[in-house]
């Protein structure tokens, strides 16, 4: 590999940088996707200047999607991936999106300057057509500058630290061509927009100061709104300038000292670059913070940051066993019956509980709503894990050694990985659905169709199968657990050759779903909180709000239960990668594995505890219902009837599970 594309940083620093970029990319994509989603929902009432805010979100999410994956992969690879072609692509994308961002901010500053201080009804107004033309001009301007290095004026090249590409700042002193390009670029695309932004907001501040001194009482509220919007715009612009100023300073230092070798340590050039990339992440948080006070509604950024239920660590249930497992890894640390009983008990509870969920769903399949299919799919993954894995694990425990050698170890790891990834992705989609439908608590407009839910479920299984096959195809490996009677991903053996696989699965099958889940349920909680505040002046809280509060508790319990079960196993797995797995006593490695396997048990228990309708279905299934007055009169139960009437306008003929109730209320 060309030396210029080799990382100049230590592997540990590269790993830290890649992890940081994963975090920034997640924040940027989730936050700006929320902004775009909000704008799309209110497209018909969107004001012309708001299109600039939408354009800014497009540039940020575009940068995150088109650049960060390549930079993250290069950081984990300890070298730039793709050579000159990918470096050219990366520099081109970076130039387009960064120039578009700063020019958009400059135009926003000028528009705010022209609007601020104008009378509310007679002031300057901008048409959508005008703003659209301005945005088109910004993109053309950015593309023009990005193409210049390809046409021969200037050039792209790797950053000094080796795992990112940009304008070849070091070439400033090498040729007149590069010197004129960098000088012109700096003036027209950096200093000039900086000055415009600074002077327009100083001018706005001066206008607001004068307005307060000679304000009419009828315009006080309007001026307060202008002040808040201006403050929000100032924070957006300041954040961008602060994020990029260190990078610009380091670039100019490199440009002026290009002839001196080793004039700046690679780690010093890395930090400003990482700081600059964070500029794509913070705007949605500024919208979130100011939206509450901004009656003008620059963009109604819904406080429902994406979230979903996590079930992913299960990815860790598959490893390729070494051929001498049966002989050399006999389990000898516990007395008979210690480990043997636990998987058997967990398997029995899991099979019984999830079978009840599936049977009740089949009994009422004609009345089942599309989103309920996700809950059924979740029960199928838990039941599948219990049926296909636990018998082999129990038999191996009672035999005091792994049964079947390499073949069964690969099978066990593959099946565990498959159901683990399917579970967490299913929970993630389930949380996204809950978040989406919670946006319209009292005025449902959109329905989730059977076709879309079936596509989601199909995607979950295809995605899971793909990841489960990777170790068989050579990326990663399956192997025995340290205690010898279970198989999973061979964490300890992938410290070197399979490290990229480990980092990728932890990022895509644990970190990303976890962030989405936490964000979604946090967003739902905020939505319920503000909806609840609006009802304080009424005589009673709408039943639908109480229902959503109960559904939120169920969803959070499921997600927390999954994370709680798998977090200890994840920590032990990471320790096995970073340190020698032999440093972990078998007892310590056993307990997290046993705890993780219990994740297939608790969902039916949560449904039974919190869903009155599910309890009735289970009681009727076991022919217990005739002995309970509650069951015989359930159709007249006031609370359940009220919930159904809120959703459909009539009382259903038979009980529904909590999942159907929730989506019936919101989607119908």
Automatic annotation (TrEMBL):
InterPro entries: GPCR_opsins, GPCR_Rhodpsn, GPCR_Rhodpsn_7TM, Retinal_BS. It holds the Pfam family 7tm_1. It comes from the Eukaryota. GO terms for cellular component: membrane. It is a multi-pass membrane protein. GO terms for biological process: phototransduction. Keywords: Chromophore, G-protein coupled receptor, Membrane, Photoreceptor protein, Receptor, Retinal protein, Sensory transduction, Transducer, Transmembrane, Transmembrane helix. It is found in: Membrane. Signal peptide: none annotated. The chain crosses the membrane at residues 20-39, 51-76, 88-111, 131-151, 179-208, 229-250, 374-398, 410-437, 458-478, 498-530, 551-569, 589-610. Gene3D superfamilies: Rhodopsin 7-helix transmembrane proteins. One of its GO terms (molecular function) is photoreceptor activity. Residues 31-287, 353-607 form the G-protein coupled receptors family 1 profile domain. This is G-protein coupled receptor 136. It comes from Takifugu flavidus (sansaifugu).
